[in-house]
Amino acid sequence: MVTDKSNGNGYPPMIELKDVSKSYWTAAGDFLALKQIDLEIYAGEFVSVIGKSGSGKSTLLNMITGIDRPTVGEVWVNGTALHELDENELAVWRGGNMGIIFQFFQLLPALSLLQNVILPMDLAGKYTRRERRERAEHLLDLVGLVEHGNKLPSMVSGGQQQRAAMARAIANDPTIVIADEPTGNLDSRTAETVFGLFNDLSQQGKTIIIVTHDSSLARRATRTALITDGEIVNEYVAKALPALNPDQLLAATHKVQPRQFEPGAMILVEGKNSDAFYVVSKGTVEVVLPRPNQSYVAVLELGPGKYFGEMEFFHERRNRASIRASRGGPVEVLTMDYETLAALLGESETTREALLQAAARHEQENVEWRDVNE
Fold first, then answer.
1. With 70 as the cut, is the pLDDT of residue 9 above it?
2. I want to staple 41 with a disulfide (CB 3.0 to 4.6 A). Which of 15, 28, 71, 373 is the partner?
3. Bridge partners for 277 per DSSP
4. Which helix (H) or strand (E) holds 57?
5. Which residues on adjacent β-strands are paired with residue 294?
6. CA diameter of the chain
C-alpha cells in the first residue's frame, strides 16, 4: 500500500504500521496472517477494515491494539512503539489511550451496566469516585441506556449490550476507539444506531477503526481498508476501479508503480505518446488546455482516487490533454502500463465498460472545454 508521511497539515500519523508481518505456527506449518503491511491512519479519521473471513482483519486490529505482536515490523500508535512494550506496559498504555469494543460485548455478567462502565475508570485511577459515577451515567445516557444502568447484561438485549460496551470503551476518554465486527450480531436497525454513534465519536475528534463484514456500512466511513490474503489493497486503486474483485484489486496493487512530481510539474503533454493509466494517490493534479498565445488554463482538478489515461487507452494511445501537478504541493501518482490494464479489463467486463464510458464522457468534456476557452 502506498502511504503518505503526513496528512497534508504537517502532522504525523496517529497510527503507523511499518512492514508488519505476522505468522502463526500451526500443525500444518507456519501460517502467514499478515504480509508486509504498511498502513497510516491520522487523528480523527474513521476507517473501516473489510475483507472475507480469514483475510487478516482481526489480526490487523490485534497489531494496532497491542493484543498481539508482529513477527516482523513496527507498530507505532500516538508516538508509542507498541512492539517494544512488555505486557504490563501495554495494559497500562491501553487503559489510558485506547477503547476496544469486542464483537461479543464481553461485559462482566455479575456487574450492572453502570458498574461495567465505571470499571475502566477504577482500573485506570481516572477521576474521583463521584466523577466516575457521573461520567458513567452521562455515557449511558449518550447511548440511550441511562434508565437501564442498574440492570445486569443478561437483562437487556444484544443491541443494548453493544451500546453499553461502547460506553465502557470510551469511559477513559481514549483518543482511539477500535471495534471488531461491532454490528455483526445486531439487527439492521440496531446496527444503524451503533454506526451512528461511531459517526458521532468521529465528529468529536476520536480516531475510529472498525472491522465490519457489512460493505454498505463500511462505505460510510471516511476511509476503507480492504485486506485480502493478509495484504492491504491500495485504497486509491480500489477507489479508481471499484468493480474489480478483491483478488483482482490485490493483483493491481502489486502492479502499480508510484511516481512523484514537484508542484507545477507537467505529467502528460498533449499529443505525446501515451503508455500508462494513472491513479492519483497524493495531492492533486490539473487537466490543462493551451490557449492561443497564452499560458495553459486549468479546467479540472483531480484528487486521490481519481484517474486519467483511460481516453488514450481506448483511442490511439496519444494524450488528449495535458496533466500537471497542482502548485499547492507535491504529487504522487500510481502508474499501470496499458498491457497490465488490458489484462485486468479482460477479467472484468464491468470495469472495462465503466472505463470506456468514462473515456467517452471525458472526451466530450474535453471538446466542450476547448470550445469555451478558444
1. no
2. 15
3. 336
4. helix 57-65
5. 291
6. 81
